[in-house]
Write a structure and sequence with these properties.
Shape: globular
Number of strands: 11
Radius of gyration: 29 Å
Strand content: 15-25%
Distance between the termini: 70 Å
Mean pLDDT: 88
Oligomer: single chain
Order of helices and strands: HEEEEEHHHHEEHHHEEEE
Largest sheet: 5 strands, antiparallel
Length: 306
């Protein structure tokens, strides 16, 4: 091989080595950049979770302070005012507290091991007011009660659910979350979305807070129309009901006499927190039980929101 050809091979070899080295360096830099990005993402996610927990703790503190200073719960109080886009360092935090006792408790359809016919009637009226079939109440009762006896032909127990393409069993226990409605016969996504603003799933009997309940729930409780319920609640924000007797008197003045189990004080609240931290968006919700006698506001469950 001539010296010229040897020099040419050496030059080509050198170029190949440089190209391979450059490619390897570029790959290593890309990997390092990806690792740094992932590390920053994990750090931002962890920081966002800290802010979300802080938001929950803030809500619990506000609820406890409210219990110490007020005799009723209404929509004009501090806890009922949403947090809208509060900046904290590189994050933005938003959130809201809602009164779960301002909704119909689906678990109230059972009183221990017995059906609560009065509450089932309220649920039927609420379903009708929400433009849903009142017969869906029977399927809810069958889902919650502890037996396999059908409430009606519209109900459903294990034989129905086990016969589905993807079989499962009826809970035969109190609901934990409203999302369980997706598994109840007759409920699709549209039906759940329509009913969700008016119902809750608290695993003990609750009274309805008429200071925070929406007009549809109050109308169902009083067995009246939505328009008449709106008339009763028209001045509620400026002049909340001070106690059950005050509600009864003001309702009676408008001709309402059929009152269910109501109150003006609440123990159960839902808290929703949203955090945006750099490129991370995090949302969480929790169910909180407030007990003023013990001075506690306990988180019963917490879950991410999507």
């Amino acid at each position: 091989m001539s010296a010229f050809r040897q020099r040419g091979v050496a030059a080509v070899t050198a170029l190949l080595i440089v190209a391979i080295s450059a490619a390897a360096a570029s790959y290593m830099l890309a990997q390092q950049s990806a690792m740094l990005d992932q590390t920053m993402l994990v750090a931002s996610r962890a920081q966002a979770d800290v802010y979300a927990q802080a938001g929950l703790d803030w809500a619990r503190g506000v609820l406890l302070q409210d219990a110490r200073t007020t005799s009723n719960d209404n929509l004009a109080e501090t806890w009922a005012q949403p947090i809208v886009g509060m900046p904290i360092e590189r994050a933005v935090v938003a959130g809201e507290v809602s009164d779960e006792q301002g909704k119909f408790n689906l678990n109230n359809v059972m009183n221990g091991n017995a059906r609560s016919e009065a509450d089932i009637k309220v649920l039927r009226r609420l379903l009708a007011l929400a433009d849903l079939s009142p017969e869906l109440a029977d399927a809810i009762v069958d889902w919650i009660d502890g037996d396999d006896d059908l409430s009606s032909s519209s109900g459903a127990e294990n034989p129905y659910y086990l016969g589905l393409p993807r079989p499962y069993r009826a809970a035969n226990a109190p609901m934990v979350q409203v999302d369980e409605l997706y598994r109840v016969r007759g409920f699709d996504a549209a039906a759940v979305a329509r009913l969700r603003p008016y119902v809750t799933a608290v695993r003990e009997r609750t009274t309805l807070n008429v200071n925070t309940a929406p007009d549809l729930v109050v109308a169902a409780m009083l067995d009246t129309t939505r328009d008449k319920a709106i008339a009763l609640l028209a001045e509620r924000v400026k002049l909340p009901f001070t106690d059950k007797a005050n509600f009864s008197n003001r309702a009676g003045a408008l001709g309402f006499t059929q009152l269910g189990d109501v109150d003006v004080k609440s123990a159960w609240f839902s808290v929703r927190i949203q955090v945006v931290q750099d490129d991370v968006q995090l949302a969480t919700e929790a169910l909180v039980r407030r007990d003023p006698t013990k001075g506690t506001a306990s988180i019963i469950w917490r879950r991410p929101r999507y």
